[in-house]
Amino acid sequence: MLPCHLPQLTKLQLVVADGSILELTPAHGHLWQAARVSVGRLGVITSLTFKIVPNEKVLRTRRFFNYNGFQKMLDKLQADYAAAKATGSAEQMWKALQAWDETQVCVRSRKACTHM
Question: Once rounded to an integer, what is the mean pLDDT over residues 9-33?
C-alpha cells in the first residue's frame, strides 16, 4: 500500500493464518498500525475502506531562474515568515508559507545540461 493512501484508510479486513477474519480500525492501536504497513506479513488483506477526500484544483507552473533569483525568493519567504511569526498568528504564518506549499524544486547545472 502506498504511504500517500494511509491517512485515508479507515478500515481493513485481514484473514490471518488460522483462517479467522479480523476487521481492524484505528481503535485497534498497534495492530492497526502494523497491519497498515505489513505488506501481507500479518495475513491476507481482503478488504480496504477509504474515506473520500474531495479533489482540489492543482495549478502547475514552471519557472526558470538563476541562483541569485532563487536566493532572493528564499530570502523573501524567510522574511515574510519571520514577520508573520512575530505576530504570533498561526494564520499569518500559514499565509506566508502558502505560496510555497506543494512546491518542488529541481536544480540542474548548466554543465550537466550541455548535451541538450
Answer: 92
